[in-house]
Design goal:
alpha/beta, 305 residues, 30% helix, Transcription Regulator spoIIAA
Amino acid sequence: MKMGSEWIDAGLLRHFEAEGTNAHRLCTIGGGWVERFGRDILISFKKTAARERLFQELYLWSATAGFRLGRIFTRFLPKKNEERETARLLSGNAEENLQTIATERHLKFGIDFGAGYAVGLFLDQRENRNYIRQAPPKRLLNCFAYTCSFAVAAASVGAKTVNVDLSKKSLARGRENFALNSLPTNDHSFIADDVLSVLPRLTRHGEKFDMIILDPPTFSRSPRGKAFQVENDFEELLLSALEVSERSARILLSTNCTSLRERALEVMARYCLKVSRRAGTFHRQPPLPDFPPGAGASTVWTTLR
């Protein structure tokens, strides 16, 4: 069996190793992809045929690249969020702990293959996390924080952070990520609540941030039953975030919603800036070498002025 050209080559693998990164994409095809977290591998697939192809090609690639495989997990990619399942072990020792640690430019992040559909780190946000470290904020507001990877990046360069997420478990994992990097949490807040409820409170308290992360899920529902639909509610989210932004703040707009690509995000942001009587410039981080064009989240940064 021939290996497809979609796999990263040994040169890119060495580049990741040299910069202290062992969490990245290995391959992307139409029916799925393969990601690395340390020695462990996660195959995400839409159909069984894609899973079988990726599994077989993985062994060919590892032999060619000189990569020693650890455990191999698989994850089905359903069309509906409610059908998402926890990753399953396909190859390796079933008695081993399902948790491991991955690194990204020497920062450590906890990975848990038994915690649900998402394992703890979104690899397509790598360059956005790097941007935070290159242009350090003083105060970062991390909305829909999940396991707080953006906050870890910010804290590593001296920023104070406020992390908001509906899930107490995710925020607890975020605290663990701080501990993995020997970062104290004294100057950091972890708020388990609905972002759209928290933002007005922060406004009333006069809170201001010079960097804000807006990377919402496509759909979510708060414990009080309020639904968030990214296509309908992103504008309201951004308008609320602008109320707590410093004059020259930088705001990340990001989504996995396929109907909101970068151009749509920028158009929406320009409208919100106009409504708020603000102005801003826009930029995007360099493309990821392990992701083909169009794969991963759509992201745009706006810098207010």
